[in-house]
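Notebook entry, cofactor series.
This is the third protein in the set we're modelling with a bound small molecule. For this one the ligand is copper (II) ion. I'm keeping the input format identical across the series so the outputs can be compared line by line later. Sequence and SMILES below, as received.
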Amino acid sequence: MVSRRNFLGAGVALAGATAWSRTSAMGLPEAPVMESAATQPPVHPSEGPHYNPVVTLNGWSLPFRMNGNVKEFHLVAEPVEREMAEGMTAYLWGYNGQSPGPTIECVEGDRVRIFVSNKLPEHTTIHWHGMILPCGMDGVGGLTQPTIPPGKTFVYEFDAVKSGTFMYHPHADEMVQMAMGMMGFFVIHPKDPDFMPVDRDFVFLLSSYDIEPGSYLPKVMEMTDFNMWTINSRIFPDVAPLVAGTGDRVRVRVGNLTMTNHPIHMHGYDFEVTCTDGGWVRPEARWPEVSIDIPVGAMRAYEFDAVHPGDWALHCHKSHHTMNAMGHDVPTFIGADKSAVARKIKAVQPDYMPMGTKGMADMAEMSMPLPDNTIPMMTGWGQFGSLEMGGMFTVMKVRDGLEAGDYEDPGDYEHPPGTVAWEWTGELPEAATAPDGSASGSSLPNTPAAHQMPDHGAGHSGH
Ligand SMILES: [Cu+2]
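Returned structure with ligand:
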C-alpha cells in the first residue's frame, strides 16, 4: 500500500501492471489508482485463463494478481475528484481514484478474492449486482454481513460460476453512496473463448448527479431533477468516442444506475440485445432495435457488425439528458418581442442579451460568462458546426483500415463526395396554393392530385 499513489505516478504503464508487484502473496494485493479520466487501452491478461478484455469508456480495468488458483483484486472505497469534462470537476466517492470504479474482469470458472478497503468517512459494503454467489458474499449491509467500518478491509471470495455482464455498488447508505458515484462494472468472460466472440467490447455505466453550477458536490437528496446526465461520469463533449474498424463485430454493454430509464439510441445501424445482467439472450429470442431502453438497475448489451463507416451519434433519446447543467424553470420566449424590455435591462446591465425568442440554438454558439466549474448546457463542435449537445451523448466512429486494438479518436469522418446533405441553390418550387388562392395546408388532404404525382421527390410537398 505504500506505493499506492506512486504506482502509476512513477510511470509504470498500466499494461505492465498485471506483471504485478513483488508484494508477498500472503499480504494485501496492491491497489493501483488511476489519476486520469481518459479511456485506458484494454489490458490483456498475463496470468490465468485467456480472455478478450473489454474497453471501459473513460475508464480502466483493475489489475489482478494470481495467488495460487485465486484471482485477487483490491478495491479501495474513497473520496475522488472526477473530471466530468474540461472545466467541470466533481467531488465524488468512488474506487481507486475514480468514479465509476475500475472494471473488474475475470473468467467463468475463476475463484476470485476481492479485498475492499474503506477510506470513506462512513461504513460501506459492496453488492455484486446480478452475480450468482453464496448469500453471505452478496454485500447487503445488515442482512448478509456487518458493514465495513472506515479504515477496515473486508474480503469477498466466490467462484465466478456464470459468464456475463454485472455491476458492483454499495448496499450500505446506498442512496447517498450511489448519488456520490460509487459503482463499477464487473465482466465475467465465457470460459470458451469461441462463445460469442467480438472484436471490440465496450462498457459504460449511466449515472446522474445534481451539481449546482459553481459547486463541486452532488446534492445527494435529489430524486428526479438532475442536471448532469453522464456516461461513466463524463459529459459531452468529453465522453470518449467508441472507435471500431469497418467489419468489426462490436458489443456495447450499458448499465443504468440512475433514477430513471434511458432509451439509448445509436444512429446508422440496427442491432440486437445479446445479453442482460440476467445472462446471454438466446439467438431465437432476439429482435432488431435502433434504441434500447435501459431500465433502472439493469444492464443491456447489444451487438452489431460495423459495416457502415461514419460518425454515428450514440445518445440517450430523452432530449433533456443530452444537455449539460440547465435550469428547468425557464419560461418559453419563442415568438416574444423582448426589444423594449431589453433596452431597459441594458440600461442597467449593458451585457444583457435577450435570448430564446427564436428557440435556444443561439445558446450553443455564444460564449456567455459562466460560473467556475460548469460547462455550457449545449456545446461541442463538429466539422460542420455546433452540435448543441451535452450529457449522455457520444459518437460511434467506424473507419476503414483500423488496426485491432487501436482505440485512438480517428478525428472527423471524411464523407465520400456527394454523400452529405446539401443546400438547394437553384430555383425554389412554387409555393403550394389551393385553387382558391388560400394556403394549401388545410386543403391538402382534399386535393387528391397532390398525392398522385410520383415524380415529385420526398422533399416536395407542393403540387
Ligand atoms: Cu437518458
